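Exercise: predict the structure of this protein bound to zinc ion.
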Amino acid sequence: MLISHAFDDKSPNEGLGRNMLDEATFSAFRDIGRDLFLRGLVSSHAGNLSVRTRATIWITRTGSMLGRITHEDVIEVGQVGPGPLDSRASSELAVHRAIYGATGAGAVIHAHPPYATLLSMLQNELLPVDLEGYRVLGRVLVKNTGKAKAAGAPESAGAVSEALKEHRIVLAKGHGSFARGETLEAAYMATSSLEASSFYLYHLLGQPGPGIPEQ
Ligand SMILES: [Zn+2]
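Solution:
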């Protein structure tokens, strides 16, 4: 859901760090974060979530555990950086900002779904063979954002946000998924559908050869 805030008419960075996250939005962060971890779509300290309001972005803190999100783990930053609290936010903040700038998304989820990430090292795109994946996702692009580049690098932000103009979810090769949605629940749906489709695809394709292909 998109939550409207009383500070929407203020300048982008005014009040950052002093506004309260409303309980409905916090509950969505906590519940979706827990579901991502319990479903095995992120490891203990990986992944990040964000929600856009009309004026700002709420995003998980760098180093936070998505399975145990507290109020202190959700940081408010401007929709355009840099800002005073950027260093406390997820290292993928630049990618989240680029996605909001390029799409009409209300929420973004970055996760490390194991089967999807594995297939991203083997294929340039995924074509779901199950009905849910086919209907929910369609073709899933894999973008080579480079494993050596720092998280949130401009190259990643550009490639990922461009792909999300046309698609609900995209894979960064050897890294993980970025999903957009009107709400965190919608972005979670795409993320969990992608992992289920990747599970089916992996077992249909069979065990790939030894070694990890060039990144
Ligand atoms: Zn990541």
